[in-house]
Structures
1.
Amino acid sequence: MRELMAFEWRVLRRERTLWLVLAIFIGLGAYASASGARFTGERRAAIAELITEQCARLDSIAALMPQLDAGTDSVPSFLDPRMPAIAGRGAAAQYAILPPGPLTALSIGQADVQPFWAQVTTRTKQTFFVNDEIENPARLLAGRLDVAFVILVVFPLLVLALTFDVVAGERERGTLALVLAQPVEPRRVLGAKVGLRAILVAGMAIALIIGAAVATGLPLSDAQTVLRLIAWSGVVLLYGAFWFSVALLVNARRLSAAASAVALLGAWLLVIVVLPALAAAAISVTHPAPSRIALTTQLREATDAAAERRQDAVATFLLDHPGAASDSSARSDPFVQAVALQDAAERTMAPHYVAFDAALDAQRRAAERFRLLSPALVVQGALLDLSGSGEHRFRHYERQFDRYHETWRETFTARMLRQERLNAATLAALPAWMFVEEGWSTLGARLAPGLLILLALVLAIGVSGWRALDRAGRTA
Amino acid sequence: MLRTIASKEYRELLRDGRFRWAGGIVAGLLLVAGLAGFIAWREQAAQRDAAQATMQATWFNQPPKNPHSAAHYGLWAFKPQMPLAFVDRGVDPYAGTASWLEAHRMNEFRFRPAMDATAAQRFGEWTAAGVLQQLIPLLIILLGFSAFAGERERGTLRQLASLGVPTATLLRGKALGVTAALAVLCVPAAVIGAALVTMSSGASGLLRLGALSTVYLAYFGVILTVVLVVSAQARSARAALVTLLALWAANGLLVPRVAADVAQAAFPTPTAREFQAQVQRALATGIDGHSPRGARADALRDSVLRTNGVSSVDSLPFNYDGFAMQRGEEHANEVYAHYFAQLWDRFGQQDRAQLVGTVVAPVIAVRFLSMGIAGTDFGQHRAFAEQAEAYRQEFNRVMNHEIRDQARADESFSYQADSTLWRSIPAFTYEAPSLGHALATHTVSLMALGAWLVLAALLVRRERRIEVA
Amino acid sequence: MTTVTPSPLLEARGLTKRYGDTLALDTLDLSVGAGEVYCLLGANGAGKSTTINCFLDFVRPDAGSAMIGGTVAAQDPIGTKRRLAYIPETVMLYSNLSALENLEYFATLATGGRPVRAELAQHLRTAGLTDTQLDQRVGGFSKGMRQKVGIAIALAKGADVLLLDEPTSGLDPKASNEFHRLLGLMRDRGAAVLMATHDLFRAKESGTRIGIMKAGRKVAELRADEIGHADLEQLYLTHMHD
């Protein structure tokens, strides 16, 4: 087998197709890496700005507080950062930041349309995810040429270009007759041809991934990053194996080179265009995204309703949060009233939020099911998830955000009721935001079904192609 | 003779398995895209209209309160769906759908639909426009790549030539035949589209649908010409197919993305934080950076006192707080108008820069034109944003003037107005730009498409000799 | 000329092949012994190529069997192919490889081992290629030169059965004569040669026995030395008329 491949290499390397494919790979890979690097660079710079601003703000408050205590400085009461209500509502607010995923430079995915930061205050949740990065909508529409796109869409075309005429080309050139007159199983000779191309393509893919990883400055000393890269490469190789198995099957049928090309192109269209289109249509018809506009309307109505029964709201609030320094002063404290109203509105909204989140989660789960329709979707999901730029990581972030928001609010509500002022020490002790990546078990559980089904598909198609290859040995 | 050639080509294509399969699949996708799009569109349109009505009602039904509080309460504006948005969603998924109109601040649009969609949908979703822009050209390639090259290989081209058929007739005849085969697919699609549009939006939608059809017909004409010319010039059917597929892949997959990147690099936009910082700075220190808020306030007060010849604001014949707030509001409005216009103009520059890519990829021009006609391009998002902003400025003005004119000096923030004031401002309605206006915004795209048509015509003229062997 | 040995290396018994309604081969019986050159004459579509394809297991007969050295080709395609060498009408090779590289490839396939380059070069020289031609890319080779590479493959294989399909069509007289010399070489080494051809002259010159096929059947068989050139032509045309 090895000699056969060595000979095939000799033939192949003197033809133009291989070098053309390699050139396209390198060119697109370089461009895609630059694109990804630029994106993560800009994202990191934006995050750095946020952190700088936060530190500066908190430092200046920490410096101001002792001066206010000492009386050497004064601010209007509605700007006094020592008041928990003021601090919690904005002055001491921290940013809950979603850093770019471990491999986002390779696969930008949804990261360009999802918010990546929110300022956590004591206000209601709906005011938060409003910080979209400024981006021309037409550019978001065009999409990004990142490494994942090259792999998903262009890579199969390159495989197609290399494999469509393995058998048919030999037949049309006339060398097939001479080859098959030799005492070798046609399967081995033809298999060696396809096999060599598979090895070359796998090599190119791995080189692309490593090259892109280096070019985009991924931290290759970090174990997590390396693990994800390895998993990423595995998925890419599985995808390549899928396309090679399809090529094997097409080559085994006795078609002309042109007909093989059309058949493979048809397969490409089916997997990349038709099936995903059906899947997307199915998702949007069966599980449309819940309406944030409806939620906004409901929130407004809930707030209005709470305001109408202000005193009831305050009373309920004080019952739920015992520990007020003094009930009467609390009742008349405008800050307490504001928080109480907000609380009442949120209680009305709670079932709506739950329904909203449930609908969103149902949509995500349906999407995972419909992905199974097409290998391209399965691979896209895996690549995005491993890169950390899919919708699951964002939901993970939202859930952590919710918990942090709750903690923040409780801290400040307690202080506000106890009429405790903040000082520099307590400021430093406020709960800090820490984003925790999804664990491998969660990732694995989510990705395993699709990838295993794809593996089974590859094996099935590959085996039937391998068996059928023998029949290609008949030239008449 | 033209008709003979055309009808033979047409019959051959219709019987060809290629056409049946590929045409069937493309037709199926077009149907799925159109219908799924329509269902979603209708759902969205109803939701937004209902939500807007609810919001307007909350405004009208406000209890008696201080007008400034009402201004802070504000109103939400929800962008409505345009009639043809189900054919071409344009930038709608990527532009916000809701804006909170309140006092002192011009807010950005929130809730991009794309944020709530899954990655699978972003990868896989095909709108009808997408099918028309990317897949019909592929179908045309499939139908036409062997028109000349295949006949040459089979030897029938030589026979035709020996009969004395002029080249131009051959070209036109084949073009006609392929067009007729395509029409089998496109005409029913157009009819269904027209039915859906009439059902949902009436005659205005039909006019736009007509304009859209014309644009796409021109585009298909260009593609068909290129395909036939390549087929005539290629050495073999296989070479023709490879060339055309490479062109198609570059056209559809690569060039639009690269063009967008290049446009962004040539005309960069500020980050959200930079933008906010710029705005905040200008609000504090004036647009020219030289007149801080405090100083401006003092200067204003002094000049008003002087003009009215009094020594304290309490003696003014109107409420000074109301007056000052409105002045402050107007200053803020100027700042916002300036910076947002700058930003939106920058987007427009980027879009025009993208059009440079049309030189190799006509699909870019068609994309912009299609969005423009459907009413889903950025220009029309901007129009909505501007109208919403104008409404915001209006109701702020009315609220501030109410205080200025009706409140006594000591009751600036305790004066109460009631629903007569709220209802004195008519409901917010959006007037979409007309079709003519939309087309005027996209003259460059129109010219680009026109240039491609001219090029196609020239190519056809130039084909005087086709190699027959 | 050596005498015909009793056990034929190449044998067809009742070989029948149908393509749809057409009977390409109709119970054909054929045998070629070691050191024999059997020339199969017939018009286009008479079944000559189909016969050869049966021995190569390129097609499976509907009835009867094609045997190489007593083994049925359909039952042991690999084993039978080891013993035979096939030279098609136009020997198509890998244009970007040299003659030697092409031979190396096919010889490796043929023997399963690693052929020695020096030996392969010698085979090419025996087949009639010059030293410069050994390393030339075959893309520019003439039909005769390609055929020589084909013969070199047969030599490298040490095949004792040779299947030739229209070997002299398109060869100029000099090349045709060289072919005759090489054919004699193979025959003298004890190979059984089956040659499908239109070339009546070459059939009489190089052949041991001649068979005439028409519509899938063998309508005449005779020894080459039993008949003269003119009579052979007459016989052939007579059978074609029926």
2.
Amino acid sequence: MLPPSAPLQPAPQRVPQLGDARSGKLAGNLAAFGRALRRAGVPVDAARLALAPQALGCVDLGRRDDVCAALEAVLVSRAQDRAVFRELFDAFFRDPELARKLLARMLPRAPGAAPAPRQRPGVREALAPPRAHTPGQAAPEQAMELDAAMTASARERLRTADFNQLSASEYRLVERLVRDIPLPLPTVPGRRARAGSRGARIHWAHTLHAAARHGGDVVALERLQRRRQSLPLLVLVDVSGSMERYARLLLAFVHAATAHVQVNGLRLALRRDVFAFGTHLTDLGPAFALADTDAMLCSASQRIADFAGGTRLGSSLEQLRRQHARRLVGRRTLVLIVTDGLDTGEPAALAQELAWLKRHTRRLLWLNPLLRFEGYTPSARGAAVLHRMADGMLAVHNLSRLEELAGAIAALLKTTRR
Amino acid sequence: MNAPERPALDSIDALIHALQREGYFADRRLATAVFLALRLQRPLLLEGEPGVGKTELAKALARVLGRSLLRLQCFDGLEQREALYEWNYAAQLLHLRAAEGTAPASMLEQDVYHPRYLVRRPLLQALEAPTPGALLLIDEVDRADEPFEAFLLEYLGEYQVSIPELGTIRASVPPVTLLTSNRTRDLSDAIKRRCLYHWLDYPERERELAIVHALVPEAPRQLAAQVTAFVQQLRSAPYGGSFQRAPGIAETVEWARALVALDTVQLDPEVVVDTAGILFKQRDDLAALDGRLAAQVLQAAQAAA
């Protein structure tokens, strides 16, 4: 830490006026600092950067800690960016060259290698050149073959085929098909109100307007009716080895099906939080913020470090409780745990965490792909605990089960809780 | 206006001292952010764990600036009529009835939509506050939903609202605006872009000790030092991991008060366990702080002091 009186290297010693700050070296340095921040992943836009010289005009440029605090207040807007900001600030305003090296360390990149073309799978598919025909085969016949793969009977077979037993090409087809399955989750009355014919409160504005049309006589009382809203959703997807084939399909399904929710004919954004768990918990929020399902899958697989590893649901849930407990909205959240229950953790710890989760949510549902087996009983240690604690167990191993999922969830929400 | 003489807030140090006189001990980073918010006339978004003094800052700052504090507590389902304005419909109807047949329609309309029938809510009050203006605290903005956030964005950008029946109301003195969030969800980028941002951490030991001294002057020095050292240990590794919610500043102060009331001179594990209900409000946390853990934390606190 430098003594407070130590001057900043790139900044001029004394900048008494705003105008000076703009014409001096400071403006250029700030712009470079903004670029460095952006490269380090801190979202800094032009409006914020434009505010920075004004902010510096308000503080004593001789005081390094004030300058740091001022720039932080202006340029940072998320708690998680503060550490990166301070490290970069320290390095940059001591030696910009050092900052560049630091940045290079933060973003490992092979020198000289051209970046791989970044195209979403959908785009790549669309731009791919048509395959050259082999001389012996006629093109129309090929097209016919392709059509045959999509006949109604093939689709019907795929609907009931287990995800785990699909061939590679079928898997790709199913991955497309799951995106079209809707998941109309049930709605509950919310706190916001709208004009309507039923409801306990009187809509005075409308009543008065109607009265004005009838010479000031109140003919009928208009009412305020509660708007319906969807339950917030929390999805935990098991990405361990035994779930490998299901995880990708179910992530695609959840992403497409819960992007919007239809409430009273309005398309509203649904509040959803999605986490992947294996040996630890991964927040897929940033991946699910992407609108395109291919982009989501791409981003999710980059984030999940423990894909196709072991399962420790208990410790993953503990991580959820410690770090993300605030994501649970009131006690309204609907929790879907997608796992086969083959957990390697301690059952007692798992039971404790599940009990906590159950206390803080509306319903805790277990989506279990192993229900494909006739006469399946949850006898594995983790599965037994899950079965005991969950409010319901639902099957998700083929397309037709996914189509029935919304109805099954709605039925479970109507029953009273055990 | 014959406002009482206020110290000029022309530097960060002056602001720190002014806040301190009002019983709020701000560290320099926080003071810098507040100073910039005042100078650049931007809203300041404060995030942090519950109990780090976000709301207290607004109260102290209002006293420093001599502005009236207007607080809008956000909640799920907050709507414009609870945040901005609403017409007093019952009174309007009565007026219509009383004036029936005595006045022409155009007169009646003017009378009914008179400002005296307007029920002003905090956001409108903040615009109409007389000099030196108001300090607007929008508390727990993350609890309101996205449509309200969008409305707020417009409000914070222009500091004016239009009421169809009356016209546009513009702030004569823009309010100083503080927003607080407990991070139950991420706020939209647009609203963050409009605000300055500060993350409030738990205070370091000296600052918390100063707060305890200021708010519980009857506590012996020795006890106050022990209390703050103990709470600091509870928040930090490795003990912080045992609890779901760390005690905030308010809990520290309450605890010190309780210990004084119990005539405690020296902290020991038994006293800690007996009074743990003040520090922790959750059953699991209370159960976690048993005599053994309390003794360990006490030892660590003594070692750190």
3.
Amino acid sequence: MSTTTTPRVKPFWPPLVAGIVLGLALLLTFVLSGHGLGASGAANDLVATIGLQVAPEATKAHAYLGPRVEEGNPIDSWMIWEIVGVAIGALVAAFMAGRFRIQLDGERSVGSRSRIVKALAGGFLAGFGARVAGGCTSGLGLSGAAALGVAAFVFLGVFFATGMIVSRLVKGV
Amino acid sequence: MFPLNDEGMLSGLLCGILFGYVLENAGFGSPVKLSAQFRLRDWAVFKVMFTAIVVAAAGLWALRFFGYLRPDSIAVPQAALVGAAVGGALVGAGFAIGGYCPGTSVAGVFSGRIDALVFVAGVVAGTAGFSALYGATLKSLKAAGLLVMGDTFADAYEVPDAVMIGILVAALVAVFLLGSWFERRKGGPVTAEEAVAGACQTS
């Protein structure tokens, strides 16, 4: 809340600069791994890992998680390591630019209880939807579009149209 | 010849660190900045995504053209268009309600946002919920609307890659022109100071 003790906040990168660097990072990812960047796949690997701990036999026999578990230890996956990297990269960037601030963002605009409920509900919808689509904004939208996949553009179009409509009905932050 | 198909820890960490570093520097750890795209006040999400798509698509095309990339070696999402549309609607609704998508919520957590941590918990719960409900219905929904000809525009509609990239470049220019016009009319993009201060009553 207080603005008196905060360090100097550096501006965000211009979108063109951020886009070029992100495009080069995505290209490097394709060259190294054969696939693009992602995020929701790591959540699935985490769910498979928890499943193996809690109910190993049921997880191995599960129609959706079983094939994933057969591929190898889901916690030691490229996608999990990538998300660990995202965490490190974001933390370094936020600290270097004086933009790290512990806060419940949206608390002042919609109230803390409403904000927590909306963040949880929004996360649930996004997590569920990403499994239906076979990826999220980064894995299917960004990476799939760079690979010129038809599904990526369908995803991005419907994603944005729905977001515009819902953001007029519900104030998320 | 590329790709190296390196699925190891260092490959994942390196790509992730670059991804997270750009996401935060673009302002995508902030739900205020991200949500402002839906209200057309801040077009950074579109500008950054379109630029990245064009750079990566053109780079892949060039690597292939000069023989550094094996043909058909890059992962392309399966063209199950109904599944992609239904999932896209759910992710879009979740983004509007929660303020993030799965990737940006990680950038949100590591720029100090507790609401982003709650969103991440929701993503894991939603992912687990999908597995719990997985059966014939969800399986067929995932695969619904599959294009039989192929997954890319070249395979499915016989649009050459170079033509698609040209269309994307034109769309990129349009996004920058249109976006900047909207940003001027709607009170400009969300600045780093505004984003760090958090959402307030008026925004």
4.
Amino acid sequence: MVPPRKSARSRLLRLIAPVGLLAILIALPLALKNNYQLGIAHQALIFIILAVGYDVLLGFTGLLSFGHIGLFAIGAYTSALLVMSTGAPFLIGLMGAAVLTGFVGFLISIPALRIKGHYLTLLTLALGEVIRLVLRSMEWLTHGSSGLSGIPRPEILGFSFRQALPLYYLLLLFAVLTVVFVWRLKASRFGRAFMAIRDAEIGAEVCGVNTSKMKMMAFAISAIIAGVAGSLYAHTMRFISPEFFSLGLTIILLAMVLVGGRGTILGPAIGAALLIALPEVLRFVKEYYLLVFGIAIWLCVILLPDGLAGLGRRLLKRVGLAA
Amino acid sequence: MDTFLQVTLSGVTMGCIYAFVALGFTLTIAAAGVVNFAYSEWVTYGAFIGVTLVSVFGLPLWLALLATVLLCAVMGYAFQWIVFRPLEGRHFLTTVTATIGIAVSMQALATLVWGPYALTLPTFFGSGVVNVAGVSIFPHNILIIATAVVLIGGLQLWLTGTDIGLRLQATAQDPVAARLMGIPIRHMRTFAYCLSAALAGLAGFLVAPLFVVTTTMGFGLMLKGLAATIVGGWGSLKGAVFGGLIIGIIEALGATYVSSEYKDVLSFLIIIIVLLVRPRGLFPEPIAEKL
């Protein structure tokens, strides 16, 4: 996968691209006209966090989980309930969400170690549905299908993020932290072990990778990130209900990672931003949107097996050859 | 005791529907290695086509049922060329995502064509109820169970007793070896797709009078069918039938005696338990699948 020798140009590109992207993201609120568009940007940032975390499991380790949205939901509910019922500060809610989802992710990984392939996918699908149905049925705690409303916006050390603009920068900070963390993770010993499991599990085991431990870690890390994203979602949207965290959202999340290009960090981030923004851009096709969306996913999977990131890489290579 | 019989009867009815769905879902997995998540929409289309034929074209129910099954088989044939051929032999992830994309589009199309409102389909025998020994029986339930017995029994005989059935089994077990033995596996797969779609149409048409016809009806059924597939054993036709019945009965009993609120949780809990205790299902295929 890694090219044997990086030219100075590509190294420069590697440095410039993230910085340029960050600059664009920092300046983005200037281009957004109203709070509604900022709201879309909020959602895009949250889903960037979620998709990049999901990619640790799907793209790095090659484990297809259909229960990830369940973890996202647990994160959202934990944080919202902690803050609303005990009056705890936002950061405590966030940490509580991260700890609990991390723990649940760790629990899920124990049975998941015993089974592989589509059995794992179906097991996680069942677990995700159970989480959603239980959230819906526990009326006394979660208000059932009517959901939780009036969740306060984040407040850190007395500084309130109630306004849309400060909130945007808070979410951007979290998104950047997540991307940097996952990027460092990929380059680390653990990241290499994850990818070894994905490419050749038996081979990895023979080479001394503790595959069980590494899979558990991949589950836990991506669960913690999902928990953080869930907490941010709850406090940004200020309303959560079990119906939102359905299997349909899992599919959208999967599409974000696959359309962007799994295992590429930047790919899932772009995929997430794209899939959140797309319905807004495609306003004019109205009811045909889902029709187009479904066919687009199908075509993407068949024609772009490496996603947009793979396409970008191929184009760059062509330009490099021509120059 | 009466309640028990009553509940078991409705459980068996739903079990038969789940068995149809699971059977059709398993067929394409067994014959072509394609996990078809658009199956939910095939079931939905079956119901919608049935409603259209009955209420718009005024066809009698029996004819509408036959026409629906036939139209669905044609749909399966068309799908093979457009959707499934490029997916055969591809990674599980690719197939799942691509067919999910197709499912999203099909659902959107159904909403555009038939509107977002629920439609209803009449039953063959009206809405009357027959009382037998204190158990009130809805004749439609008996029809579903009878169809299931005839169809699944016939399918079993056909698969194990006839030449073409054996060829289909051979294709399922090892496509390469089957081709070397001179079996036209392309035709076998075509046949499996058509049969799978026909079963979806049948399930959709038969289940429609029990509930209402909506664009999302197939999805819940497919999840239950999926549960049946797992409980029975991935890729096993026998497992699909028994898995469907088990899920249907446990669900009905659980809803009555445990908690109706957690009814849907129950079938997922069954999946989780079966996967943990017997990951290959209750009736595993003797020939191990390759992944």
